[in-house]
């Protein structure tokens, strides 16, 4: 019996002789102690010396990191919050797995690591790489195994108690509920649908970020102007506490122009630009061009509370327009409004509101307060769902600068009050086409300036739906961008010119003609100096 027990013990944890069993004691040599200290202080040394990976060509090999991977590992080690943008096939998942391994072995506290992704299967792939690395560590460096499966690891702690833990999951609002996490890793952040990401970050981020020693690591390849772009942009501006790390495909020693040309041929220009060049691009059929989108930059809000985000406070003497889109307030589409300064060109989006739970009975009061603050802004409602909210706003709150709409031979138009009117705009196909067309011109001609990350995100996923119109791409919303579509329609109305005495169409036409004149070369003439040539030149000038 004793011989059998010894044989079982030598097989390690669950028959895997590479894994150290819980309770198994291995004496450290002096050399082991010095090596342990060296690995603790230098995660790059630890990774290159002790971590192994599976190579497609050579099987099990040592993980020899490249310079950009060393840069990422050191940043994750020295900073609390790291956001890393890697091109495809650059080893970002393996790099983070190696650092998490270092963290659970050498952290001063008792680590509790959460690996999450769009789907649990993606998170388990990271776990598999971490487990492979752990399995091939020397046993004197390992801690005893208490739990070891596809989605969960529990290592042995002090005096046989539970020690470091690693678990996997999907990015859902309940994914981390009730769990204490010291390191959160979000893999391929950009592919998480915006609706899911919003719920997850709202539920998880405040809890984890509130710790003094907790860490958050976000990695991804770009995919449009979404939440990952927002995190990255704010990190580059030093606004959110994340330290950005960017890798370029040219930094990979085994990549050359031939490889890049092959990827371009395989992926096409759009995917190549996003996944290899790591450029943020919208969908291929967006309302505005990718160049226009890439020129948009975010700025921080000066006021944020209960769905209201303000970037510029009201200025005395300025004229403002507010476009309002209402919903039922039951958690589906959001009730929104946009506040636009129309005093001068270019117009500016100075604030917005978005809430999918606000009651229709309370929403009019919020609109009234903000519109009043912004110099009694002109307010235009979309009334497809109901006129209940504008009715309360106009009749009960007695707001005067409500823009009413009448129907004439050319369709809907801002009413002068002399015909049957409705308390807002009915968003039909004609109105939407006009609004989209003019919004495109406003944005691409930089006649409407937008610095709001949420609005830019929606514009980047507002695409041709193949039915002669534009709508949000699958998994995204267009509540905020529809406020701007309403504004685009409003700028075509004669009433709008009276607000600020700006004829937008004429202004754009004049600027384009001036640009054409400046680019054209003057006609030249050769002359021998006789009077006839001189008269001809005088006539042409």
Provide a short characterization of the protein structure.
The termini are far apart. Helix content is 39%, strand content 19%.
Structural write-up:
- Helices cover 39% and strands 19% of the residues.
- The strands form five sheets. The protein has an eight-stranded mixed beta sheet, sandwiched between helices.
- The chain is elongated, with a radius of gyration of 30 Å.
- The chain is α/β, with parallel strands linked by helices and 541 residues long.
- The N and C termini lie far apart (113 Å).
- α14 crosses α16 (479-490).
Percent of residues in helices:
25-40%
CATH H-level superfamily of the largest domain: P-loop containing nucleotide triphosphate hydrolases
How does CATH name the architecture of the largest domain? 3-Layer(aba) Sandwich
Distance between the termini: 113 Å
The best one-word shape is elongated
Number of helices: 19
Q: Label the structural class.
A: alpha/beta
Report the biggest beta sheet as strand number plus sense, adding barrel if it closes.
Answer: 8 strands, mixed
How many domains, as an integer?
2
Fold blueprint:
Layout: H1 2-10, H2 30-41, H3 43-50, E1 52-55, E2 59-62, H4 67-78, E3 81-85, H5 92-106, E4 112-117, H6 120-135, E5 145-149, E6 152-156, E7 162-170, E8 183-186, H7 194-209, E9 215-220, H8 227-236, E10 243-246, H9 257-267, H10 269-275, H11 290-294, E11 303-305, E12 308-310, E13 320-325, E14 335-341, E15 347-355, H12 363-373, E16 378-382, H13 388-396, E17 405-408, E18 411-414, E19 421-422, H14 429-444, E20 448-449, H15 453-460, E21 462-464, E22 470-472, H16 479-490, H17 494-500, H18 504-519, H19 531-540
Parallel strand pairs: 3-9, 3-10, 4-7, 4-8, 8-9, 13-16, 15-20
Antiparallel strand pairs: 1-2, 5-6, 6-7, 11-12, 12-15, 13-14, 14-15, 17-18, 17-19, 21-22
């Amino acid at each position: 019996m004793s011989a059998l027990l010894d044989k079982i013990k030598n097989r390690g944890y669950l028959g895997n002789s590479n894994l150290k069993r819980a309770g198994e004691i291995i004496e450290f040599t002096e050399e082991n102690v010095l090596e342990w200290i060296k690995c603790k202080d230098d995660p790059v040394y630890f990774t290159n010396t002790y971590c192994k990976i599976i190579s497609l060509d050579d099987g099990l090999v040592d993980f020899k990191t490249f310079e950009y991977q060393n840069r990422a590992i050191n940043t994750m080690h020295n900073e609390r919050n790291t956001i890393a943008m890697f091109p495809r096939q650059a080893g970002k998942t393996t790099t983070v797995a190696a650092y998490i391994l270092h963290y659970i072995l050498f952290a001063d506290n008792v680590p509790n690591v959460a690996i999450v992704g769009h789907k649990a299967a993606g998170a388990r792939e990271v776990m598999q790489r971490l487990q492979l690395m752990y399995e091939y560590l020397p046993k004197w460096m390992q801690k005893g195994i208490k739990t070891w499966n596809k989605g969960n690891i529990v290592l042995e702690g002090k005096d046989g108690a539970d020690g470091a833990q690693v678990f996997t999951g999907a990015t859902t609002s309940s994914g981390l509920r009730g769990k204490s996490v010291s390191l959160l890793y979000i893999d391929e952040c950009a592919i998480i649908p915006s609706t899911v990401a919003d719920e997850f970050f709202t539920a998880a981020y405040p809890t984890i970020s509130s710790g003094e020693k907790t860490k958050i690591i976000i990695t991804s390849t770009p995919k449009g102007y979404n939440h990952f772009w927002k995190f990255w942009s704010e990190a580059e501006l030093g606004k959110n506490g994340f330290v950005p790390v960017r890798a370029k495909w040219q930094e990979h020693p085994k990549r050359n122009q031939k490889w890049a040309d092959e990827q371009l041929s395989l992926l096409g220009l759009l995917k190549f630009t996003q996944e290899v060049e790591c450029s943020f691009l919208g969908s291929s059929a967006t309302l505005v061009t990718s160049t226009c989108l890439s020129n948009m930059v975010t700025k921080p809000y000066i006021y944020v509370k209960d769905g209201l985000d303000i970037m510029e406070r009201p200025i005395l003497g300025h004229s403002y327009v507010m476009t309002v889109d209402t919903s039922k307030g039951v958690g589906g589409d959001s009730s929104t409004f946009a506040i636009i300064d129309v005093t001068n060109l270019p117009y500016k989006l100075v604030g917005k509101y978005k809430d999918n739970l606000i009651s229709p009975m309370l929403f009019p009061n919020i609109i009234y307060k903000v519109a009043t603050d912004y110099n009694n802004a002109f307010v235009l409602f979309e009334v497809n769902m109901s006129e209940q909210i504008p009715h309360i706003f106009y009749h009960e709150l007695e707001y005067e600068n409500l823009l009413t709409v009448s129907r004439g031979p050319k369709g809907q138009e801002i009413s002068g009050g002399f015909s049957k009117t409705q308390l807002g705009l009915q968003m039909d196909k004609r109105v939407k086409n006009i609004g989209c067309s003019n919004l495109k011109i406003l944005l691409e001609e930089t006649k409407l300036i937008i610095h709001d990350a949420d609005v830019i995100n929606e514009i980047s996923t507002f695409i041709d739906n193949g039915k002669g119109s534009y709508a949000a791409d699958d998994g995204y919303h267009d509540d905020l961008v529809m406020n701007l579509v309403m504004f685009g329609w409003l700028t075509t109305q004669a009433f709008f010119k009276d607000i600020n005495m700006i004829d937008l169409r004429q202004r754009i036409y004049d600027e384009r003609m001036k640009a054409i004149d400046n680019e054209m070369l003057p006609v030249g003439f050769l002359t021998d100096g006789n009077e006839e040539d001189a008269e001809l030149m005088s006539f042409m000038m």
